[in-house]
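tokens incoming
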């Protein structure tokens, strides 16, 4: 599926992540190396990922999902930017006990054209100076 591979690479390039395929879906992963996080005193690599799957070739739309790992101060600006663009915020939660700094995870979803979704995500990431 060269077309999906190319689309996945474009999707990741827009978001600023590393492209790949997992479970038949395009996934773009961003490492947040600037966050020096630890869980139980051990180094923990903070990552965010955004994906699309179930691409409808006639409409160009797919199920687009995301999971962003954020610092607490980044949550409100990120949520505001997402909502202004019509992206559904499906959950806001922490995942780990004893993580320092404490991370907040935002799960998002939309049915959209993958590259349009990627541009919306990029605008939300830019609202918090992500990267």
């Amino acid at each position: 599926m060269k077309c999906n591979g190319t689309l996945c690479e474009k999707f990741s390039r827009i978001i600023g992540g590393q492209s790949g395929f997992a479970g038949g879906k395009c996934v773009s992963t961003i490492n947040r190396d600037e966050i020096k996080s630890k869980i139980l005193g051990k180094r923990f690599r903070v990552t965010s990922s955004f994906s699309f799957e179930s691409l409808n070739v006639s409409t160009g739309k797919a199920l687009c999902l995301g999971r962003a790992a954020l610092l607490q101060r980044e949550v409100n600006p990120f949520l505001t930017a997402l909502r202004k663009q019509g992206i559904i915020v499906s959950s806001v939660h922490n995942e780990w006990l004893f993580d320092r700094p404490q991370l907040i995870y935002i799960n998002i979803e939309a049915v959209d054209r993958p590259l349009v979704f990627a541009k919306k995500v990029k605008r939300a990431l830019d609202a918090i100076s992500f990267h």
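note: The CA atoms of residues 84 and 124 lie 9 Å apart.
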